[in-house]
């Protein structure tokens, strides 16, 4: 669209790959102004777990707007906020025996990351934080300091400090005992590394290339944090809200982080919302010590409550298991055999096709372009954008899921011979 190319900043990115002008979306499909249909394996970078314009969520939001409900409320008492908190407690926290206070942050995930890091440093009176190689936690300065991508970090324009990166169990470090390494750093009075206030982790690194941390590794990380008086922060921005098969991604390890960060799909409908869960004893904030004008997005509260109700109504975890099994079987049976160097990783409804070892330069980007030509929207992630990330709505119909997977196979075979 000429006016966008003329006026929007060069910082725009997704429209450089997905070049059509879109004007409508429903469920697991996007439609261009010309009526072209696309299957969505992107889900708004994980912000649309329940699909586009979900009817159940949409009606709740329409009803609220029609009633002249409060739209902007800062952190004042509102019915929408109270009803969300009640539903979140009843459907998510109480059944899992989790006792968290809830902090509503600014509209994006990076603001909740900033709040978590700030609170951890305030609580422990230490400056340093440990993050992991391959991590992505956001683009504002504090969260960017905990993000490992060199290209992202180069945009900061200043030094990014007070974060030390530790090995994640991936690649060279897959058989390396990174927990033992972290422990050795902490007990070595000549390591030259300051003890951290917190360790921030994604149980599955999404932007890092869909790298699933082993369950035992997560258990040991929790134990290490307990032994050394370090707070454990779980960043569930992209892989929470049932993306990995359960509402919280850490449930498979039966651990309880000290803080949990949620954004993206927590609002259900793709509306801006982020929140920080913290153990009650960590709620040491003074009033307005971390605030923001849009920390009370009332429509997001309405959508978030509806999303929780909808997930319970359709028994989403059972539905997810069937779809997870389909994708896993398809990728291992029809994608991995194409080349012995293809690696498949994933959990729930987030999967990665790692093409980094296939001897075709830029293959992953060639593949997503082929997929786009064939009617599928999908993106890359990981080192050198070498991993194709499959991220469909959790509510995707099985026929569209199957068609999308078939497009990936067709696109890959085409990209390999070009």
Automatic annotation (TrEMBL):
Cofactor: pyridoxal 5'-phosphate
Family that this chain belongs to: Belongs to the class-III pyridoxal-phosphate-dependent aminotransferase family.
Protein name: Diaminobutyrate--2-oxoglutarate transaminase
Keywords attached to this entry: Aminotransferase, Pyridoxal phosphate, Transferase
Organism: Brevibacillus centrosporus
Lineage: Bacteria, Bacillati, Bacillota, Bacilli, Bacillales
Enzyme class: transferase
Pathway note: Amine and polyamine biosynthesis; ectoine biosynthesis; L-ectoine from L-aspartate 4-semialdehyde: step 1/3
Source species, domain of life: Bacteria
Enzyme Commission number(s) of this protein: 2.6.1.76
């Amino acid at each position: 669209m000429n006016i966008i190319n003329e006026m929007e900043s060069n910082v725009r990115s997704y429209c450089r790959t997905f070049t059509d002008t879109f004007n409508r979306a429903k469920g697991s499909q996007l439609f261009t102004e010309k009526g072209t249909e696309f299957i969505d394996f992107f889900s708004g970078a994980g912000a649309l777990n329940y699909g586009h314009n979900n009817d159940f969520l949409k009606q709740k939001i329409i009803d609220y707007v029609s009633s002249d409900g409060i739209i902007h409320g800062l952190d004042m008492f509102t019915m929408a906020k109270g009803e969300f908190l009640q539903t979140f407690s009843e459907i998510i926290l109480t059944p899992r025996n989790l006792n968290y206070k809830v902090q509503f942050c600014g509209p994006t995930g990076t603001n909740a990351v900033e709040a978590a890091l700030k609170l951890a440093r305030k609580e422990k009176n230490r400056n340093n934080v440990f993050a992991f190689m391959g991590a992505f936690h956001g683009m504002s300065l504090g969260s960017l300091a905990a993000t490992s991508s060199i290209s992202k970090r180069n945009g900061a324009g200043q030094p990014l400090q007070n974060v030390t990166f530790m090995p994640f169990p991936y690649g060279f470090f897959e058989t390396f005992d990174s927990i033992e390494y972290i422990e050795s750093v902490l007990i070595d009075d000549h390591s030259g590394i300051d003890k951290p206030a917190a360790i921030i982790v994604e149980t599955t690194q999404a932007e890092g290339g869909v790298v699933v941390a082993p369950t035992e590794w997560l258990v040991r990380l929790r134990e290490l944090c307990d032994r050394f008086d370090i707070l454990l922060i779980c960043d569930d921005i992209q892989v929470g809200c049932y993306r990995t098969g359960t509402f919280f991604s850490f449930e498979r390890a039966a651990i309880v982080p000290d803080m949990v960060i949620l954004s993206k799909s927590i609002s259900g409908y793709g509306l801006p919302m982020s929140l920080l869960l913290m153990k009650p004893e960590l709620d040491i904030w003074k009033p307005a010590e971390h605030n923001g004008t849009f920390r009370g997005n009332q429509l997001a509260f309405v959508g978030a409550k509806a999303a929780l109700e909808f997930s319970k109504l359709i028994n989403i975890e059972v539905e997810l298991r069937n779809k997870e099994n389909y994708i896993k079987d398809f990728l291992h049976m029809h994608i991995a055999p194409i080349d012995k160097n293809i690696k498949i990783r994933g959990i729930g409804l987030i999967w990665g096709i790692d093409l980094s070892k296939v001897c075709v330069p830029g293959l992953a980007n060639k593949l997503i372009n082929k997929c786009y030509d064939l009617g599928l929207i999908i993106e890359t992630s990981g080192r050198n954008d070498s991993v194709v990330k499959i991220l469909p709505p959790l509510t995707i119909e099985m026929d569209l899921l199957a068609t999308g997977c078939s497009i990936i196979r067709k696109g890959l075979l085409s990209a390999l011979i070009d």
